[in-house]
Amino acid sequence: MKNHTQKTHFPNVSPIQYKGPDSMDPLSYRFYDPNKKVGNKSMAEHLRFAVAYWHSFNGDGSDPFGWGPRPMPWNEGSTAEERALNKMDAAFEFISKLGVSYYCFHDVDLIDEGDTLSESRKRLDFIADYARKKQEEHQVKLLWGTANLFSHPRYMNGAATNPDFNVVAHAGAQVRNALDITMALDGENYVFWGGREGYISLINTDMKREKDHMARFLHMAKDYARKNGFKGTFFIEPKPAEPTKHQYDYDAATVLGFLNEYDLADDFKLNLEVNHATLALHTFEHELAVAGAEGMLGSIDANRGDYQNGWDTDQFPVDIYELTRAMLVILRYGGFQGGGINFDAKLRRNSTDLNDLFHAHIGGIDLFARALEIAHQILEESEYSELLKNRYASFDSNDGKKFEEGALSLEDLATYIGEGDQLKLISGRQEYYENLINRYIL
């Protein structure tokens, strides 16, 4: 690092400023004012935006049909260390100019993996020293770290669920190293995404054994981190399939069942992604509600899918209707528990200007800020909360309340209702609710 010369990679971009709803400057915020209070917290405190290191600084636009067309000048350098330093300069320049407080990474995003575990560890320690200096210089924090346990060919049959113990052991060593660097950088959380923790074919799979192994692996990782002073939350990120045919962390409900079954719920919460929800044939608000109702809404990855495509396209968010309804759920359940909003989204293959990275993030940040304001207004100013409460009013007193408290038997229900011939149908008023929300959006 002594001979490293820091370069400026976005010389034509000044720090992004809030300029208000009437701003026509594409490199400005129209709605995101980090210090503006929404309720009892600032926008920055509510939203806790993070930049994803992998898509933003490793994504060159490659896809299964061609190599990447996007130039990434920070990848210059004859050694892994030199390339990593250049990439980190670009990342922190971008994050600082964007004006957000957090970033996230996989271990191999920061620096190329070595030929051996010891070489990989040496490289991680090297770049961690530089990351520490960058965090202090730019006042940026690590929202969460993780290990990439899915890209290398060794993980073709999974990591913690691999049928070969040697691969499981290698994954354990890699996670230990990733946990160490996360703790060294004061990471606030740690994420597990089981990219290949599932099966391609059941004919050669012992599902029960693999799930047991995954739980054992998570306990070992949790115990190691706690023993070494990690106070943060562990997140699991559900996804139904891709690249596997079926993943064991299919959706929010599946993960909650897994955590409870294997006694992991006290240390783990969920990191939910928009595109993963749609791949599971759920809405994002559904997944948020499932986690929020159980006090397990830890963090989110912000993106969207293309609704004509059946795969994980990881596009930046653009739908104010979708995000407003999502923010309604997030606010109703008290916000994030430890996490924030990580832009796990990538530029389109034909977006090849470096400034496209700013435009994508600015749009997503502004959208979430506006959705936050609208959702807060709906909850505080409209009849929405009262309507929702009144819909369940029959359970707030008398026999309905006794039912919720577990004080009635099945015989009591039959006695209460009698012949059941006096039931009055009560409308769900779905269209009224939809119009109410649209009224505030429009």
TrEMBL record:
Mg(2+) 2 binds at E273, H276, D312, D314. One of its GO terms (molecular function) is magnesium ion binding. The keyword Isomerase applies. It comes from Membranihabitans marinus. It catalyses: alpha-D-xylose = alpha-D-xylulofuranose. Its EC number is 5.3.1.5. Mg(2+) 1 binds at E237, E273, D301, D344. This is Xylose isomerase. It is found in: Cytoplasm. The keyword Metal-binding applies. The gene is xylA. Its cofactor is Mg(2+).
